[in-house]
């Protein structure tokens, strides 16, 4: 599995934006360094989720980027997204694999080494680990230490993406880490200038993680 798609993993949030403004921000992020997009919607009907996912997929397809759907296996299948991301309260990993088949990506939230190892064994393609820093996206999310993040990276062979409160100013915290990439929500979605912010974050990540397309190709 290529590590490159996970480098700058945008997780969407609509905040107070209308649909047009939201989609414009997704486009600007995709144009300026995002390598993967997760559409995350919690309070929305299935019909509206499907319609929005279709529109976001048209964007990610235009920029040849993977689209991951948060939680909803049905929406993933309905729009033929690249995969789904699931948490502890969603369907079991092995059942999701049965439903999606062998080619779709399955991301799993893993806050402990045990959960990470189990998720890999059951068929996960990558892990999302956090929250590393306090985040308003999930107010009650317990923090995951950098030591636990490092232990998870050592325990599994699949890519690990750090998430939770990650912003441009704290990216250097991950210097020397074995993570495959960083998931960003508010620092991109609520930026005054999404294009400029995405460019800056991507540049920071490339410097800190030290992974390029050339490195990725040579590691295969």
UniProtKB/TrEMBL annotation:
What EC class is this? transferase
Q: Which organism is it from?
A: Bavariicoccus seileri
Entries under InterPro entries matching the protein: Aldolase_TIM, ThiamineP_synth_sf, ThiamineP_synth_TenI, TMP_synthase
| HAMAP family the UniProt entry points to | TMP_synthase
Q: In which pathway does it act?
A: Cofactor biosynthesis; thiamine diphosphate biosynthesis; thiamine phosphate from 4-amino-2-methyl-5-diphosphomethylpyrimidine and 4-methyl-5-(2-phosphoethyl)-thiazole: step 1/1
Q: Say what the protein does.
A: Condenses 4-methyl-5-(beta-hydroxyethyl)thiazole monophosphate (THZ-P) and 2-methyl-4-amino-5-hydroxymethyl pyrimidine pyrophosphate (HMP-PP) to form thiamine monophosphate (TMP).
Give the molecular function GO annotations: magnesium ion binding; thiamine-phosphate diphosphorylase activity
Instruction: Cite the binding residues for Mg(2+).
Output: 71, 90
Q: Which family does it belong to?
A: Belongs to the thiamine-phosphate synthase family.
Q: Does the keyword Hydrolase apply?
A: no
Which SUPFAM superfamilies does the record match to this protein? Thiamin phosphate synthase (SSF51391)
Q: What is this protein called?
A: Thiamine-phosphate synthase
What catalytic reaction does the record list?
2-[(2R,5Z)-2-carboxy-4-methylthiazol-5(2H)-ylidene]ethyl phosphate + 4-amino-2-methyl-5-(diphosphooxymethyl)pyrimidine + 2 H(+) = thiamine phosphate + CO2 + diphosphate; 4-methyl-5-(2-phosphooxyethyl)-thiazole + 4-amino-2-methyl-5-(diphosphooxymethyl)pyrimidine + H(+) = thiamine phosphate + diphosphate; 2-(2-carboxy-4-methylthiazol-5-yl)ethyl phosphate + 4-amino-2-methyl-5-(diphosphooxymethyl)pyrimidine + 2 H(+) = thiamine phosphate + CO2 + diphosphate
Q: Give EC number(s), comma-separated.
A: 2.5.1.3
Q: Which cofactor does it need?
A: Mg(2+)
Instruction: Give the cofactor note text.
Output: Binds 1 Mg(2+) ion per subunit.
Q: Which GO terms describe its biological process?
A: thiamine biosynthetic process; thiamine diphosphate biosynthetic process
């Amino acid at each position: 599995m290529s590590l490159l798609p996970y480098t700058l993993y945008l997780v969407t949030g609509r905040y107070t934006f209308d649909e047009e403004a939201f989609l414009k921000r997704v486009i600007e992020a995709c144009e300026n360094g995002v390598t993967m997009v997760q559409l995350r919607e919690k309070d929305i009907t299935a019909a509206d989720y499907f319609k929005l996912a279709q529109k976001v997929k048209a964007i990610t397809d235009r920029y040849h980027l993977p689209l991951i759907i948060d939680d909803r296996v049905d929406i993933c299948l309905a729009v033929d997204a690249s995969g789904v991301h699931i948490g502890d309260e969603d369907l079991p990993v092995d059942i999701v694999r049965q439903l999606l088949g062998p080619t779709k990506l399955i991301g799993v939230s893993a806050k402990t080494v045990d959960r990470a190892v189990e998720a890999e064994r059951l068929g996960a393609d990558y892990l999302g680990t956090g929250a590393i820093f306090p985040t308003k996206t999930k107010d009650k999310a317990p923090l995951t230490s950098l030591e636990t993040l490092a232990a998870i990276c050592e325990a599994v062979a699949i890519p690990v993406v750090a998430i939770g409160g990650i912003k441009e100013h704290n990216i250097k915290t991950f210097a020397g880490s074995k993570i495959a990439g960083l998931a960003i929500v508010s620092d991109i979605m609520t930026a005054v200038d999404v294009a400029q912010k995405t460019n800056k974050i991507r540049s920071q990540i490339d410097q800190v993680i030290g992974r390029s397309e050339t490195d990725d190709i040579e590691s295969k």
